[in-house]
Amino acid sequence: MIKVGIVGGTGYTGVELLRILVNHPDVELKVITSRSEEGVRVADMFPNLRGHTDLQFSVPDVQKLGECDVVFFATPHGVAHAMAEEILNTGARVIDLSADFRLQDADEWAQWYGQPHGAPGILPQAVYGLPEVNREQIKQARLIAVPGCYPTSVQLGLLPLLENNLLGEQMLIADCKSGVSGAGRGASVGSLLCEASESMMAYAVKGHRHLPEIRQGLKRAAGKEVQLTFVPHLTPMIRGIHSTLYASASGLTQEKLQALYEQRYANEPFVDVMPAGSHPATRSVKGSNVCRIAVHYHAATGQIIVLSVIDNLVKGASGQAVQNMNIMFGLAENAGLQQVALLP
Ligand SMILES: NC(=O)C1=CN([C@@H]2O[C@H](COP(=O)(O)OP(=O)(O)OC[C@H]3O[C@@H](n4cnc5c(N)ncnc54)[C@H](OP(=O)(O)O)[C@@H]3O)[C@@H](O)[C@H]2O)C=CC1
Ligand SMILES: CC(=O)N[C@@H](CCC(=O)OP(=O)(O)O)C(=O)O
């Protein structure tokens, strides 16, 4: 059994990790931390876990965490910077759900996050945990940077076009909608029911922190810089990301485009390319680790429209983190991750 610790067990991604891991056949949960809820039984705080775990929250303690085989960080940025190296030195592996190790360039990270990078010494060993791109490196990794939620949906939606050099030089557009759980469980005015329901708004149009992360991934796929306009929106749903991606290429057909995506993802357990003409809904992935994609081509204009949906807390965070753990430890990649989406 793989001994698992979680730092940050009271946030949405932490409790989502718990929901997945209590049913994982190869995992024994050993430590779950919270500074504010020390001593509280996890199942008392989250009754959905009653009967599944007897653990109590404890304050983060490197020695205790170091007795685990792997430690997940489900914490705000900066926390893994402060603790990851010490934990790695104990021999445990680290899977970080925050943005701390996603950007390869520490200066760029500092620019976007408004503080110096706290662990540049271990940054080079971090592997970007997008299995559809980096599966081989993930197998050897000791430190994983789990991709952000928007970057997962946008990169999976655009990779086949960029890897096949179909787009030339052009401005790509990612028009993305997120559910409110993407903002975390911490209290904030923008997440209140009266603020977020029955309304929708764009935000961070000037520049969102996920822009450099998406650009970095698209550049790797294309082998050159890629221009991208990325506009996130807050929508009145709890979970889900819907990305509508716009590009153009002449000389394609709907059939060729469809075949390109079907071939690229034929062996991917968590990417589902839907039949031509489909419109994936976020509810079709809610609670599951699947990214569902549909591609559309307007032959008259050369317009490509890719629709990509994920659950921000699963393929966009905790499910993808567990997928990485499965790959790192040589387990079945879908172990613990076979949940079918909830309908309605
Ligand atoms: N929500 C989402 O859809 C996604 C989130 N992420 C990222 O995952 C991370 C967690 O997100 P989310 O679950 O939403 O966050 P929350 O704000 O909901 O939870 C944060 C957790 O971290 C703990 N924590 C906060 N500060 C510290 C600290 N200094 N040391 C130790 N523990 C700390 C908190 O517990 P306590 O204060 O009691 O210790 C809490 O359990 C973030 O980096 C986020 O950006 C990534 C993809 C998607
Ligand atoms: C709806 C909403 O607020 N979404 C969050 C998404 C991000 C997230 O959690 O991303 P990181 O892991 O990169 O911090 C945001 O836009 O900041």
TrEMBL record:
Tell me one GO biological process term. Answer: L-arginine biosynthetic process
Could you tell me which Pfam families the record lists for this protein? Semialdhyde_dh, Semialdhyde_dhC_1
UniProt-annotated location(s): Cytoplasm
> Cross-referenced InterPro entries, in alphabetical order?
AGPR, AGPR_AS, AGPR_dimerisation_dom, AGPR_type-1, NAD(P)-bd_dom_sf, Semialdehyde_DH_NAD-bd
Q: What is its EC number?
A: 1.2.1.38
Family, according to the entry, reads as follows:
Belongs to the NAGSA dehydrogenase family. Type 1 subfamily.
PANTHER family (alphabetical):
N-ACETYL-GAMMA-GLUTAMYL-PHOSPHATE REDUCTASE, CHLOROPLASTIC-RELATED, N-ACETYL-GAMMA-GLUTAMYL-PHOSPHATE REDUCTASE, CHLOROPLASTIC-RELATED-RELATED
Function description: Catalyzes the NADPH-dependent reduction of N-acetyl-5-glutamyl phosphate to yield N-acetyl-L-glutamate 5-semialdehyde.
Q: Kindly provide the name given to this protein in its UniProt entry.
A: N-acetyl-gamma-glutamyl-phosphate reductase
Q: Which gene encodes it?
A: argC
